[in-house]
Design brief:
The protein has 3 domains: about 45-70 and about 120-235 and about 400-450, Bira Bifunctional Protein, Domain 2 (BirA Bifunctional Protein, domain 2, 2-Layer Sandwich), CATH 3.30.930.10; about 250-380, YbaK/aminoacyl-tRNA synthetase-associated domain (YbaK protein), CATH 3.90.960; about 470-565, Rossmann fold (3-Layer(aba) Sandwich). It is about 25% helix and about 30% strand. It is built from 15 helices and 31 strands. Bound molecules: zinc ion.
Length: about 575
């Protein structure tokens, strides 16, 4: 391919509104252009990478026994009403009407459509298990589209759906898909972690996210060297610093104008681990009290899924006063009536705790579980924090990293098959609901994540398997006859082995061509110049962090070197 014939509009500067390094570099390298907020065009270079990633995923899905299909992007409202997601999805769902005023949505995922298809086509256990997948554009009306194609309103996703007769079969297949995702991440050249995750709007009992490690990642992940991993919504830990003491008598103390845990802790000279924070929440509009140890924070997502709520928000001052009969900052569980009380596992362990007295400027000391207060439910509802111990090996301290979620796999169970009536007849002729799994991976997002993880000051550094071209040949002066001959020979030798090669044939200064080559990030660069050819050498260089990684080779040796790397 000749550079001069391709649409690769590189830019020296990134536009002002590009807010993350991958977006800046994708635009500067001429891979994408922004049409409107959260909407991008993929230009030839961007599409080439997208197709390479797509092929890696396709191979892994086919290896896992998947069959590729295409589902529509536009779905009728009816299906979405049946699963309840028309309402649950809220404003992220793009909704529209056709000319007959019938309502539709643009697919954010396709569980409804695929389950509907399977319910009509699968009748017997003999047709199961089955896995179908598609590459399809997905739509989400993001409240604030940002980070280029990382959080856009339209993006390419691979979604796969598996159908089983029983849980054990799903478990086995889930493991297979986990391995397929593991392979995809490795083949894309990622440093990554797989982590347990909350299932969110998709639902289901168990799910796992694949996280690419990057400082710019939106999610915090928690992991341990023993193999434990979870996202911040799900992470668990062993409670640190539990000190049991002999129970003392409860005592009221005046704390004028001091209400926050930190301030009261300083005022009393007691550590935060001695405190029970009492937070009043509105759980689907009904007030509840949530207790947590002073040095921890409530994980609202854990709380929401524990109680099966649609919404959980901190209560306003008025509600707090009506529930606790005191202003904000003095709530406590002792004597709290007519309200559901949920406590984190850390709370009953505190002996001689300090907590609000449900009275202005007052706290209680030496408060103890069961003796002085009771709760309706004790569960893990806290955010893990630095210093906490891993729940799996129960030995090492948990580690924290930032990550970019690129894949999410779910055991769905019967959530969709029940509501959409997807059943099969077993060997005894009995009707059962089909058991499902679903498996998503963000194809466009993989591009951005790769760049976030692999770039330097000069531009992108593509891993070998996903680079838009495997090699760029830069003739210093393509008009020079011998230079052109050698360039074309190398091109032929490599192309004939199925490699994707770009020749920068532009009539530009060498410096500018090198700058563009670094910006675009093709892994290997061969420079052909008149001077070198006097000694029958070309310059061979990897687009690495090491600026000195240059070799001077004969054109034939350079070809051999590339074929060795790509094993052709
Ligand atoms: Zn561990």
């Amino acid at each position: 391919m000749l550079f001069s014939k391709m649409l690769i509009p590189t830019l020296r500067e990134a536009p002002q509104d590009a807010d993350i390094i991958s977006a800046k570099l994708m635009i500067r390298a001429g891979m994408i252009r922004k049409v409107a907020s959260g909407l991008y065009e993929f230009l030839p270079l961007g599409l080439k990478v997208l197709k390479k990633v797509e092929n890696i995923i396709r191979e892994e899905m086919n290896n896992a026994g998947g069959q590729e299909i295409i589902l529509p992007l536009l779905f009728p409202k009816d299906l979405w009403l049946q699963t309840g997601r028309w309402n649950v999805y809220g404003k992220e769902l793009f909704r529209l009407k056709d000319r007959k005023e019938s309502e539709f949505c643009l697919a954010p995922t396709a569980e409804e459509a695929v389950t509907d298809l399977i319910s009509k086509e699968i009748k017997s256990y003999k047709q199961l298990p089955l896995m179908v997948y598609q590459f399809g554009t997905k739509f989400r009306d993001e409240i604030r589209p940002r980070f280029g194609v990382m959080r856009s309103r339209e993006f390419l996703m691979k979604d796969a759906y598996s159908f089983h007769t029983d849980e054990a079969d799903l478990d086995g297949y889930y493991k297979k898909m986990y391995d397929a995702y593991f392979n995809i991440c490795n083949r894309c050249g990622f440093k990554f972690r797989s982590v347990e995750a909350a299932s969110g709007a998709i639902g289901g009992d168990f799910s796992c996210e694949f996280m690419v490690l990057a400082e710019s990642g939106e999610e915090e992940i928690t992991w341990c060297n023993c193999g434990y991993g979870a996202n911040s919504e799900k992470a668990e830990s062993i409670i640190a610093n539990c000190i049991q003491e002999k129970l003392a008598d409860m005592q009221e103390i005046l704390t004028p104008n001091v209400s926050s845990v930190n301030d009261v802790s300083k005022f009393l000279g007691l550590s935060c681990e001695k405190f029970i924070k009492t937070m009043i929440y509105l759980a689907d509009n009904i007030p509840i009290a949530v207790l947590i140890r002073g040095d921890y924070d409530v994980n609202e997502i854990k709380l929401q899924s524990l109680l099966g709520l649609n919404e959980i928000v901190l209560a306003d001052e008025e509600t707090i006063i009506s529930v606790t009969k005191s202003p904000k900052g003095f709530a406590g569980p002792v004597g709290l009536k007519n309200i559901k009380i949920v406590a984190d596992l850390s709370v009953p362990e505190i002996s001689n705790a300090v907590t609000g007295a449900n009275k202005k400027d007052s706290h209680l000391k030496n408060v103890n579980y069961k003796r002085d207060y009771n709760v309706d439910l004790v569960a893990d509802i806290r955010k893990v924090k630095k210093g906490d111990i891993c729940p799996k090996c129960q030995k090492e301290e948990l580690q924290f990293s930032r990550g970019i979620e690129i894949g999410h796999i779910f055991k769905l169970g019967t959530k969709y098959s029940k509501s959409l009536n997807a059943k099969y007849l077993d060997a005894d002729g009995k009707e059962n609901s089909i058991i499902m799994g679903c498996y998503g991976i963000g194809v466009t997002r993989i591009l951005a994540a790769t760049i976030e993880q692999s770039h330097d000051d000069n531009g992108i550094i593509w891993p070998d398997n996903v680079a838009p071209f495997e090699v760029v040949i830069v003739p210093i002066n393509y008009a020079h006859q011998q230079t052109k001959e050698v360039t074309d020979k190398i091109y032929e030798a490599l192309s004939s082995k199925g490699l994707d090669i770009l020749i920068d044939d532009r009539d530009e200064r060498a410096g500018l061509k090198f700058k563009d080559a670094d910006l675009i990030g093709i892994p290997y660069r061969i420079v052909v110049g008149e001077k070198g050819l006097l000694n029958n050498t070309v310059e061979f260089k990897h687009r690495s962090y090491d600026k000195n990684a240059v070799k001077f080779l004969s054109p034939q040796e350079a070809v051999k070197e590339v074929l060795k790397i790509y094993k052709r």
